[in-house]
Amino acid sequence: MEMVSAARLRRAEQRIEELRPYARGIRMMTRRAVEAAEHIPGLPLLQDRETVNRVGIIAVTADRGLAGAFNSQIVRAANRRRQELRNEGAEVFFYAVGRRGVSSLRFRGFDVEGEYTGFTDRPGFANARDVADAVIAAYADEKLDRAEIIFNHYESPLVQTVRVNVLLPIQAMDEVLKAEEGQEEEGEDGQRALWIYEPDPEEILRRLVTDFVEISVYRALLESTASEHGARMTAMRNASENASELIEDYTLEMNRQRQAEITQEIMEVVAGAEGLR
Asked: Residue 41: what pLDDT?
C-alpha cells in the first residue's frame, strides 16, 4: 500500500502543479475585476449579505481510511468551525465529500445536505462542478449566506495542513490569497501592473464568478487527493516499521520462553537421574 500510494502521489503532485498557476490566475482576475467594476452586476454570487444566518461548509475527506489523521482532522476542524458559527448565531449545513466524511458527520448527528463519494482518489473537474453547482444554487436561492470549504492542503508527503477558505461571497476572499496573488501583480518597481479590460469588468465578472467557485473547489479536491496519498504512504511506512519492531520483540520473547522451557526440561531430567542413584 505504501508503494501504491507513492506512485499515485507522484501523479497527484503533477496535477496540482499544473492547476495551481491557472487557479491562482483566475482568482487574481476575479478579484481585480471586482475592484475595477464601477457597478457590481446583479449576480447572486456577488451579493454580500448583511447578516450571515446560514453557512454551508464543504468538508473534503477521502473514501478510504488507513491514512493516519487525514480524515479525522478534517472532521474535527469542521466540528470546531460549526461550534464557532453556532456561537455567532448562524445555522450550519454540511456538504460532505468522501465516504469517511459522510459517515463521520452522520455518526455525530449532523445533517448532511450533500454527499459526494466515489472519486476522491482521482477527482475530475466534473466532480468539482457537481459540488460547486449545489453550493452556488443554495447561495443564489438565499438558502446560504456564506459558503466555506475545509480541506487538507498538500505541503509534502509528511505535512498536510488544514485550510478553511471562503468560497462565497466572492468579496470575502481571505487576506492570505490576496498576499499570495499580490506578489505576481506587482512589477519590478513594486508598482501594480495596469489592467485594461475588454469587455467591461462587469461583463467579465458575469463569466468569471461561476468558474471561480468551480476552480476553487477543484483545486481543493486535488490538494486533498495529494494529501491523502501522502498521508497514507506515511501511515503505511510507519505501520510496516511498527510491525517489524513487533515481530522482533515477539520473536525475542518467543525464543526466551522456548529457552526457558528447554532449561526446565533439562533440569527435570537431571533431577530424575539424581533421584535414581
From this structure: 61
